[in-house]
């Protein structure tokens, strides 16, 4: 829910509206604990030592962009539109956001849905997909969606409230879906976290405005809690819980001053805030193993960066300028990660947000698109970071090209064949690529075979690499011989060489 809304919506802001809506501070909280992103080799057999950790690097900015007007809006009598969750999913952009429609009972905040071909639209007519339950913690209001996809299941984390005048009654819930449109409440319809009650402030919003990321089996959940111990006196503060259970019913850890520690309650004391803000969104940037938190400041959306352990800021904050009135929604992958830049995956990240830009009679509205690219990130320095290169070709030590495929390398003698097989060719070889195993070499003229059904493969050291492309075999000057189905089935296959 918004902390600056007027009566039609949830009355969350009470006495400190002006202070709450002036979230002008950047990141707070000095790095704490021993950094873990710089590791020393343990023996002489280890590869070259890891590069020094990124520490407040200054980023270059270019390709600033902005939509010509409103990108998504509620249909009918929707009085406000804000706090979007934005997902690049299956070649289209999907958006869920907070609004209110009389056609979607009960009379409170609803979550609407729309989709389009790109982040700048055009988007389809909005439809309500999630509303108050009529009972429990979210009886009247459901708002502030954050959506991730784990396997084939979508999870939506949302703010719920049972009434308008609720006095720290906002709490967070979770629902699941197979299509992102029809949702089922999880955790028995009960909230997964609520206000900690560490300090009762004049701002009586409570807990919510959550944003989720799925990373290495963990769901990281960032959220507002105006009663948190580490919040600003106006209630601004962002806290982090994580769990391998998407419903946060077990195995929950909280980020504190000494890193993540197991907790027995999701509503325990909030001792560490990662940014002094409300209604923030975040994503994980694989190429640099960093979190990027989008939060509103005086002149637009500030992006604050943290490393994986929240022990240092790898980059200086950057600003996406322009008008705003409520909650930025970052364009993210289904897991909540930054989209991979197709031209420069190790050196550049595109940051795009949708955010409300106008304060209407009932609340923030007119969601518009703003974006920019940041350069100079020095990415792909480790094996984990270099996995963003899956499908890309890079120069090899033998003056040929290596293609990253499933965490392995394929070395192509002919550039034209590597270009045909890959999704792009980089001019330099990032350090992290050297950690990958060379599993196959593709010499010019390697023999090719086809089965009776027309499937084609190259024989590399007697093992079959199925390419299903006569054009690729032709580029490689590989003569194709037809073999029986039995011979085809008998070949040992090269592992994990999936064409990107």
Essential attributes:
500 residues; mainly beta; 5-stranded antiparallel sheet; 30 strands
Explain the layout of strands and helices:
Layout: H1 17-20, E1 60-66, E2 82-89, E3 92-99, E4 110-116, E5 127-130, E6 141-150, E7 153-161, E8 171-177, E9 184-185, E10 207-215, E11 218-225, E12 238-243, E13 253-256, E14 259-262, E15 281-285, E16 290-297, E17 300-307, E18 318-321, E19 326-332, E20 348-359, E21 364-375, H2 383-386, E22 392-395, E23 401-405, E24 408-412, H3 415-421, E25 424-425, E26 437-442, E27 448-450, E28 456-460, E29 463-466, H4 470-475, E30 480-482, H5 485-490
Parallel strand pairs: 2-19, 22-25, 24-26, 27-30
Antiparallel strand pairs: 1-21, 2-3, 3-4, 4-5, 6-7, 7-8, 8-9, 10-11, 11-12, 12-13, 13-14, 15-16, 16-17, 17-18, 19-20, 20-21, 22-23, 23-24, 27-28, 28-29
